[in-house]
Amino acid sequence: MPSQLCKNIIFVATPEQLSCRLCYSHLWITAVSLHLSSGGWITAIDALFRDAEHFGIEFRHPNGTPFLIPDTCEIFPEENDAGRRWITNFKKTDTTGIEPRYRCRCLPKLLCIELVLQSTVAKYRRGPDTPRCSFTHMPLGW
C-alpha cells in the first residue's frame, strides 16, 4: 500500500498553456507517442481520477486551490462514441506526419490528457529548467 505521508502535487495547466501553439504541439507529440487507443485514453483518464488519492496524487490549480476532479463521462460522453471520436481526431496527423491535423480547443478534454501525461511521464512539476515558449507563462513541463 502506498505511503500517504508524501503527496505528489500536480498543478493543472492553465487555459493559456493549453491554448499556446507550442505547448499544444508538445502535448500532442507526447500524447501520440504513447500509442494508446481512444478507449485506452478514456480508461487511463478514468483510472487516474479514480485512483489519484490512493496513489497520493493531489491536483491543484496554480494558485494552490484544489482542482475538483470532473466526471469522465461528462467530458468524454459515451453517447454515439463522441468521446472516443474526439480522441481519434485529436491524434490525427497532418500530411507531414509530424504535426497535428486539427488543433482541438476543448480545454477540459485537453486538460484531462495533460493530467494523464503529468502523472505518468512527467516529474510532477513545472520548474525553472523547463524551456519557456513565452515570457508570459510557464510552459507545459514534461
Structural account:
It is a single chain. The chain has 142 residues and is mostly helical. It has a domain at 26-120. The chain is built from six helices and two strands, in the order βαααβααα. The protein has helices at residues 15-19, 21-33, 38-51, 72-75, 82-91, 107-120; strands spanning 8-11, 57-60. α3 packs across α5 (82-91) and α3 (38-51) crosses α6 (107-120).
Secondary-structure map with pairings?
Elements: E1 8-11, H1 15-19, H2 21-33, H3 38-51, E2 57-60, H4 72-75, H5 82-91, H6 107-120
Parallel strand pairs: 1-2
Helix pairs in contact: 3-5, 3-6
The largest β sheet comes out as: 2 strands, parallel
Give the overall silhouette: globular
Q: Strand fraction band?
A: 5-15%
Rg over CA atoms: 15 Å
- The percent range for helix content is 40-55%
Cα-to-Cα separation, first versus last residue:
27 Å
Q: Uncertain runs with pLDDT below 50, 5 residues or more?
A: none
Helix-strand sequence: EHHHEHHH
* Content-based structural category: mainly alpha
- In the sheet with the most strands, the strands line up as 1-2
Per DSSP E runs of 2 or more residues, the count of β-strands stands at 2
